Amino acid sequence: MAVRSSGGSMPRSLHGAADRATDSSALEKLARAGFAASGVLHLLVAFIIARLAFLGAGAGGGGNADQSGALATVAGQTGGAVMLWVIAVGLVALGLWYLAEAILGSKPKERGEDKTGWKRLKPLGLAVVNFAIAFSAARFAMGSGQSNAQQNAGMSAQLMQSGWGKALLIAIGIGVVAVGAYHVYKGASEKFLDELRGSHGTSVTAIGVTGYVAKGIVLGGAGLLVIFATLKADPAKASGLDAAVKTLGEAPFGKFLLIAAAAGIAAYGLYSFVRSRYGRM
Predict the structure, then answer these.
(1) How far apart, in whole angstroms, are the C-alpha atoms of residue 274 and residue 35?
(2) Is 3 in contact with 16 (CB distance < 8 Å)?
(3) Domain segments of the chain as ranges
(4) Per-residue pLDDT for 43 more than 70?
(5) Which of 145, 131, 270 has its CA nearest to residue 206?
(6) In this structure, are residues 102 and 120 in contact, taking their beta carbons and an 8 Å threshold?
(7) I need a surface site. Which of 82, 118, 133, 267 has the fewest CB within 10 A?
(8) Which sign, positive or negative, has the C-alpha torsion 101, 202, 39, 276?
(9) What is the pLDDT of residues 90-120, one digit of tens each?
(10) First to last CA, the chain
């Protein structure tokens, strides 16, 4: 595979390394497995949210409604450690693929004009997210996994003790709200179809729209909670997705809202399997 020009923004050696790595069919297959692993985790998060809706947090429906809760669920199964290592490997491969996309400025398997510098931030951010979840999966596989909610609340409590820390938390909250809004836009406009090869039926479109919009709303809620929690100096409410879901359950008609959230997150998980098979790499 030829090395693409970067307009001087990236060393040719980095471009060459990224090209050679993504020319490997094995890496592409592992990256596709990463989408499937993400699908499994989203389905498990959806299951946890549904359990909260029907059982409540204090009556057998406890658990963290986030990636760490999903990983803990996997860890508790027979052969869970092996499954967690498989998930970790797939997510690392997907992270490397996104990293290559950030370096090359375009999708590794496609030709085209390089993206400008700021447009490389999206695949770079996705690479970081996948690496982070892979690291968490590895920790759970080794028996040292921790709840995201507890870690986030502890970190938020420390940051809230200083002015710059509060400003950082508010900036993070705004960033999460922006990501959530983008998910809603991507789903409502059906822009996600650009990620897939070929044409697909209405069922795939419906799953994608539902999944992206639902995940966007939940992410937006989590970001708003971080902002409000920072202003009120309440670190427990700044603990991410889990806090957002449980706050949703405390609202009027909370049970129905949780069921809708569970269905939406499950739809996003199903779409991840579609992307594993038909995604443009």
Answers:
(1) 9
(2) yes
(3) 1-145, 147-281
(4) yes
(5) 270
(6) yes
(7) 118
(8) negative
(9) 999 999 999 988 888 777 776 555 666 667 8
(10) 15
